[in-house]
Here is the input.
Amino acid sequence: MHALPTEPQPDPTIDVLLVDDQDLVRSGVAMIVEHEADLHVVGQARSGPDGVAAAVELAPDVVLMDISMPGEYDGIEATRRIVEQTDCRVIVLTTFDDDECVFPALQAGASGYLLKVSEGEALVEAVRTVHRGQALMSPDVTRTVLDHFTSRATGGTFRPRLVDSLTARERDVLGLVARGFSNAEIAAELYVSEYTAKTHVSHILTKTGLRDRVQAVSLAYESGLVRPGELAS
Here is the structure.
């Protein structure tokens, strides 16, 4: 008896929660998100506290969070609470790209940081990227993060001995990640396939217990693996 062929199953829909105090901004973002077949807006909130409550109740996959909102607490504190209380991943959307906004958001647990001037295509791809478990930042924000590490100490958030758990090749890869290389650029630099480069990055995060590439950058600088001034050109 032959098994009947099965129909291919569609990819699961990514549920998105929007948190922004400006109605027009939320409406615009909602239109962009809902235009994509694999994305769905499950809820909207106008403040940090309402955003946390909605995230707990609706359990979306990804939260698009504004930083600057009036009320009991802002988007950064809301991000921290959502990360602590749920499995949601948070992308911060803001008009600011200076480190006074970037670093508190990343420290609060945001998986992505995009400027509101980003194009709609970049926004929806960011949702998909973060949902896959990867961190994401716009190029301008990435440069802000890297410049930060060349100008000041990071405060010893991660223990340098975490690097000792890595192989020599993994330390090479970590150094390139810290210098701003993408997986494709790492592959070209080390003469390996992009799949191999991606696998090395995944092993680094697993061995060190780091959440994403942003934390990996911090580890590389704090451990002395990469020194100020060694950024990619």
About this structure: Confidence is low (pLDDT under 50) at residues 152-157. Residues 111 and 154 are 19 Å apart (CA to CA). The chain has two domains: 14-147, 154-222. Residues 154-222 form a domain with the Arc Repressor Mutant, subunit A fold (CATH 1.10.10.10).
